[in-house]
Each structure stands twice: as structure tokens, then as C-alpha cells.
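hey so u asked for the seq, here:
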Amino acid sequence: MIGRPIAGFQHLVDGVYVAPNKITVAEWLTHWLAGRQGIAETTLDGYRRDIKRAIEGVGSIRLRDLTPTTLSAFYGELSGRGLAPATVKNTHAALHKAFEDAVRQGILARNPADHVELPDRNRR
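ran it, C-alpha cells below
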């Protein structure tokens, strides 16, 4: 009989294992941003703004502990502060790219920005 996996062993079911680490969101985003080369200066400036905003909001959290729920709450806070929906969307896009790169490098098992719903565009 196959039941639910025992806590801490979900990676065996998923076929993904990432060694535990203590990297924070701020550390990863700073490292990721420093590695952006060969892109337009305006794109880099946008990334800098978005990453700064994210570090202020969720930077102290361990990267491996960041959840879609935490990101949704963060995006809600940004929206609640009156940031334009496009700004929240751009911040999400930058984080999604940074976390996807962490998955590719074996630092994260999954991208916490996947499937996160952004705040309703009509609410401000």
C-alpha cells in the first residue's frame, strides 16, 4: 500500500534532491544580479529596482524556505503600498527568473514563484 511520503522524504518521491543550505533570498538575489551580463542597461536598471524591492520585503528568508504563499503576501503588500500592477508584475518576473536560475544550478528543487497569482489589477 502506498501512502503519503514521510515528512522530509518528499524529494525521494519527486526524484529531486537539493542539499540543505542556509542561503538567504537576499544572498541569492545579490549573487544572481551580479551575474547579469550582456543585457541592456535599461533591463539591468529594472532588475536592480525589482531586486532591491524584493530584498527589502523577503530578503531575510532562507531561499529554501520561501513559498508561493509568502510571495503572494509580498506582492499583496507591494500592491497595498500603491505600486502599479505593472511594477508588481515586473518584480515577479525578475524573481521568477532569478529563482529559475537557482533551480537550474541545483540550489532550489522548485521555483517558489511558479503558479503565484498576482494581486487583482483592479484593486489599488
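Confidence is low (pLDDT under 50) at residues 1-13. The helical segments are 10-14, 25-34, 41-58, 68-80, 85-104.
lmk if thats what u needed
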